[in-house]
Design goal:
Number of strands of chain B: 13
CATH class of the largest domain in chain B: Alpha Beta
Helix content of chain C: over 70%
Chains: A mainly alpha, B alpha/beta, C mainly alpha
CATH superfamily of the largest domain in chain B: Periplasmic binding protein-like II
Structural class of chain B: alpha/beta
Keywords (chain A): Cell membrane, Membrane, Phosphate transport, Transmembrane, Transmembrane helix, Transport
Shape of chain C: flat
Strand content of chain B: 15-25%
Order of helices and strands of chain C: HHHHHHHHHHH
Largest sheet of chain C: none
Largest sheet of chain B: 10 strands, mixed
Structural class of chain C: mainly alpha
Distance between the termini of chain C: 55 Å
Protein name (chain A): Phosphate transport system permease protein PstA
Helix content of chain B: 40-55%
Family (chain A): Belongs to the binding-protein-dependent transport system permease family. CysTW subfamily.
Strand content of chain C: under 5%
Number of helices of chain C: 11
Number of helices of chain B: 14
Radius of gyration of chain C: 27 Å
Oligomer: heterotrimer
Shape of chain B: globular
Membrane topology (chain A): Multi-pass membrane protein
InterPro entries (chain A): MetI-like, MetI-like_sf, Phosphate_PstA, Phosphate_transprt_permease
Number of domains of chain B: 2
Chain lengths: 283, 342, 323
């Protein structure tokens, strides 16, 4: 009697385990499936739309030949300057919070505020920059776009810097202090050097993140069919171009949108992979 | 480390110099507004750039957004399919002139029904958009289209979610043919649609209808041609069934008394005539009389002069009705008074 | 004795001057870092201030009743927050209901079941999914998911659950493919990699000793997961879920393409609807006056909402974990 009961319990347990483990494999399969669908759709629609034109001409009106050159330039330019601003400030801010003020109540608050900025919906950043820059400047501009992306990248770099600096052993800090060098020198030459890979990874991840952002650029950098190399005036960026072109009924323009989608995704995935290879991620 | 720094500095210098070089180029002539005029205006901008190397940067954001940008002075000109009232023009120091006319067609996506096959009239159209006719095989639709194979799919109404001059003209037509519509909904660039859902811009509407089985909407004719979508014939005010074509659009616009109307304010919906397309519309360009940057204003006016004189072929190739020469001459004459051109 | 100074003559070195220069350099560096940290705080405050100021006209017109106003209609200039807020909350909720079980499943797979050599590639693949820009989710959602929904999935739901009393009200036509449910599905796929990554990381912090002893006792993998892994990491898990929720709440581009932009409040979750971020993205460009400030008021609400979720998440995980 007892044996039967024990056997029943056992088979139930194993049965349940079987079920759950199958479900978890199914879940992993689903995850892979979604990734495959997204990349597959991108490749399917995007590869056939690639041509030399895409890389050499600007966005056309429907029916004419054209490409995404102005949008690619726009993304590169706006991302570049945004990181140029955000990375140094982010690194310095993280340095302050860990090296100088670690543990203080003020630092805890500042870290928390940084994380709020980090998780702020990007469209809200766009709305803010619209009010702060676009309205006074009377129009869209690369400057506004740069400001918006910098605001998004800043907390990312700040956070990564903090995390990386925390990993630096205190013994290293004490050793450099004993050398008699000024603190800032010991910071830059020793401590930064040991945390550098991690910080660079953080910057690369920030680049990957902001180059794909659409919402904050919608009302700031705006959109243009023409090449705009300057800081003022509306400038096209890849994500906003994809957004506008995908909504167009014209077949050519939709194809261009897919090409752009493929280009930006490949670029961002490449940056992510490079960042991970550099960072030497965990298993 | 040092190498990275050198490289970064070099890249920064290169980017900066390229950017500054670009910044020294002349400012663009910027405009925003109606998506109705977008196909032909884009073609004009391309032609103008080829002819003069000047850039006209136009954003198709809808008539409502275009005028808003003009009032915020973030663009040089606005384009709207709903003419501005005398009062608004006066209050803001603006002047408007007509640039193009064209046809709004009813577009649909029904399995088994070809483009150009269906016929609607004002009554059935308002019934559908009021939500009273909900299925494609409704008796009223069958009566107008005895030969079409109408399925029993529900009708999905799609409208313009943004402030749209196309909406204005379409609802203007519905208000003229249906007192119920006029009372319940009225006519404006944005209205309280009783049923359906919205898409942004003529572009968005076209894409949405193409994607949604059983859908119906209203859009400028060239979008329907470009996207090979279903479109309907209409029964006009004279009771005749007409196709959306350049000659029916022209017949509708022919009734417009441009020269006689103050501020060129003429609506061409539901015009009389056997061969008239009932849902026709025009687009006006609006500029400041005393702009902050007169050079940009003059540049824009030069573009529109080019469009009047040389852009007619582009217009007709896209099935728009160009403004007749007699009228454009009067318009350009009025520029001397309004904008101080020579 | 070894000459550690290497023969250098320190009698000429002005130690005091050097120290003074060092101190000055240190001060400058210190202030640079302080200013940078302060800038971050300043920026957040600036954002809040600008949002509040620009949203003021709406609250002056409606007072707090804006928060429970159920009508949002630009043509009649009436604005209430409920349709957009409801859309955001419902789509995020459904997205979490779908994403969390799948994420847990993937995490359990990665930590317990997955053969060693596959672990890294599959883990990386999931993380790559996180890097895909949200607009890609939007267009793939629009061109792949929406037709599927309209032609097969939604009619099926209407015919089955739509007929059940009470719940059926949630699944009524019109169902042209775009709507809250579609948006929820896209959101779920977007949030999946985040929650998976955090869950997996958190599972990995469970001491191997605990795990091994559980297996040693004869527990099945599922029992280990259910009775050891999840309870041990409970706080971290909830924190991770909250972070995913925060992401879902604020997501704009993925949702805007597939949600429909209808501001009417309705019971059916398969009909076109709207969310806060989609509403802003769609109508901000042409809004002015009361509509503009109402949109910004919605934005402020969203900001506060995601702040609350983040604060809750922090309280749960503490600071040791990833974003």
């Amino acid at each position: 009697m007892e044996d039967t009961i024990r056997q029943n319990i056992m088979s139930r347990r194993y049965g349940r385990n079987r079920l759950m483990m199958t479900l978890s494999v199914v879940a992993a399969g689903l995850g892979m499936f979604f990734l495959a669908i997204i990349l597959g759709t991108l490749l399917f629609h995007g590869v056939s739309s690639l041509s030399l034109d895409v890389f050499t001409m600007s966005i056309p009106a429907e029916g004419s030949r054209g490409g995404l050159l102005n949008a690619m330039y726009g993304t590169a330019m706006v991302t570049f300057f945004a990181i140029l601003i955000a990375a140094p400030i982010g690194i310095l801010a993280g340095t302050y919070l860990i090296e100088y003020a670690n543990g203080s109540k003020l630092a805890e608050v500042a870290k928390f505020i940084n994380d709020i900025l980090l998780s702020a919906p990007s469209i809200i950043i766009g709305v803010f920059v619209y009010g702060a820059i676009v309205v006074p400047m009377r129009g869209n501009s690369a400057i506004a776009g740069i400001a918006a992306l910098a605001l998004i990248a800043l907390p990312v770099v700040n956070r990564t810097t903090q995390d990386m600096l925390l990993l630096v052993p205190n013994a290293l800090r004490e050793a450099t202090a004993a050398l008699g060098a000024p603190r800032w020198k010991s910071m830059t030459h020793v401590i930064y050097r040991s945390a550098w890979t991690g910080i660079l990874t953080g910057i690369l991840l920030a680049v990957a993140r902001i180059s794909g952002e659409t919402a904050p650029l919608l009302f700031t950098a705006g959109y243009s069919k023409f090449m705009n190399a300057g800081f003022t005036g509306p400038i096209a960026t890849l994500p906003v171009a994809i957004n506008t072109l995908a909504a167009d009924p014209g077949e050519d323009l939709k194809r261009l949108a897919w090409a752009g989608a493929l280009i930006i995704t490949v670029a961002i995935l490449a940056i992510n992979i490079i960042a991970r290879l550099m960072g030497g991620r965990r298993q | 480390m040092n190498l990275i720094r050198k490289f970064a500095a070099g890249a920064a210098a290169a980017a900066l110099s390229l950017t500054l070089a670009g910044a020294s180029l002349a400012a663009d002539i910027t405009g925003a507004g109606s998506s109705f005029i977008n196909p032909v205006l884009s073609k004009w901008a391309e032609g103008y750039k080829a002819a003069t190397s000047n850039t006209v940067n136009y954003q198709s954001v809808g008539s409502g957004a275009g005028i808003k940008q003009l009032l915020a002075k973030t663009v040089v000109f606005g384009a709207t399919d709903k003419p501005m009232s005398d009062g608004d023009l006066e209050k803001n120091g603006l002047a408007q002139f007509p640039m193009i006319s064209g046809g709004i067609v009813v577009t649909y996506n029904i399995d088994g029904v070809k483009p150009g096959e269906l016929v609607f009239d004002g009554e059935t159209l308002s019934g559908i958009f009021l939500g009273k006719i909900t299925k494609w095989d409704d008796a009223a639709l069958k009566k107008l289209n005895p030969d079409a194979k109408l399925p029993s799919t529900p009708i999905s109404v799609v409208y313009r979610a943004d402030g749209s001059g196309t909406t204005f003209n379409f609802t203007n037509y519905l208000s003229k043919v249906s007192p119920e519509w006029k009372e319940k909904v009225g006519s404006d660039t944005a209205v309280q649609w009783p049923v359906g859902f919205g898409a942004k811009g003529s572009e968005g509407v076209s894409t949405t209808v193409a994607q949604t089985a059983g859908s119906i909407s209203y859009v400028e004719y060239s979008y329907v041609v470009a996207n090979k979508m279903g479109f309907s014939k209409m029964k006009n005010a004279a009771g005749k069934v007409v196709e959306p074509k350049l000659d029916t659009f022209t017949a509708a616009a022919a009734n417009a008394d441009w020269k006689g109307a103050k501020n060129f304010n003429v609506i061409v919906t539901n015009q009389p005539g056997d061969n008239t397309w009932p849902i026709a519309a025009s687009t006006w360009v609006v500029l400041y009389k005393q702009p902050a940057d007169k050079a940009l204003n003059d540049g824009a006016l030069d573009f529109f002069k080019w469009a009047y004189e040389k852009g007619q072929k582009d217009a007709t190739s896209l099935n728009y009705v160009a403004i007749p020469d007699s009228v454009s001459k009067v318009v350009m004459e009025s520029w001397k008074k309004d904008f101080g051109t020579k | 004795m070894v000459d550690a100074t290497n023969g250098a003559d320190f009698s000429r070195v002005d130690v005091a001057a050097i120290t003074k220069t060092f101190k000055l350099q240190d001060r400058i560096f210190f202030f640079m870092t302080l200013a940078s940290a302060a800038l971050v705080v300043l920026m957040l405050l600036a954002i809040l201030v600008v949002l509040v100021i620009d949203a003021l006209p709406t609250f002056q017109t409606y007072g707090l009743s804006f928060l429970w106003g159920t009508v949002w209609s630009a043509p009649t200039e009436k604005f209430g927050a409920v349709p957009a807020v409801m859309g955001t909350l419902i789509s995020s909720l459904i997205a979490m209901l779908i994403a969390v079980p799948i994420s847990f499943g993937i995490a359990i797979f990665l930590t317990e079941l997955c053969p060693g050599p596959l672990r890294r590639p599959i883990g990386t693949a999931i993380e790559l999914l996180a890097g895909v820009p949200s607009i890609i989710y939007g267009i793939v959602g629009l061109f792949v998911l929406v037709p599927l929904m309209q032609l097969y999935i939604l009619p099926f739901l209407i015919a089955t659950i739509g007929q059940v009393p009470v719940i059926g009200y949630l699944f009524q036509p019109p169902a042209p493919g775009v709507g809250l449910l579609t948006a929820s599905l896209v959101l779920a796929i977007m949030v999946l990699p985040f929650i998976t990554a955090i869950t997996r990381d958190v599972f990995l912090t469970v001491p191997p000793m605990l795990r091994e002893s559980a297996y040693g006792m004869g527990m099945t993998t599922w029992e280990v997961a259910r009775n050891i892994l999840i309870p041990y990491t409970r706080r971290g898990l909830v924190g991770g879920v909250m972070l995913g929720l925060g992401r879902a709440l604020g997501e704009t581009m993925a949702v805007t393409f597939v949600v429909g932009s209808v501001t009417r409040l309705q019971a059916s979750i398969i009909s076109p609807s709207t969310t806060i971020s989609a509403q802003i993205a769609n109508t901000f460009g042409e809004a002015d006056g009361l509509q503009l400030s109402s949109l910004i008021a919605l934005g402020l609400l969203l900001f506060i909402l995601s702040f609350c979720v983040l604060a809750l998440a922090k309280w749960m995980i503490g600071r040791s974990d990833s974003f």
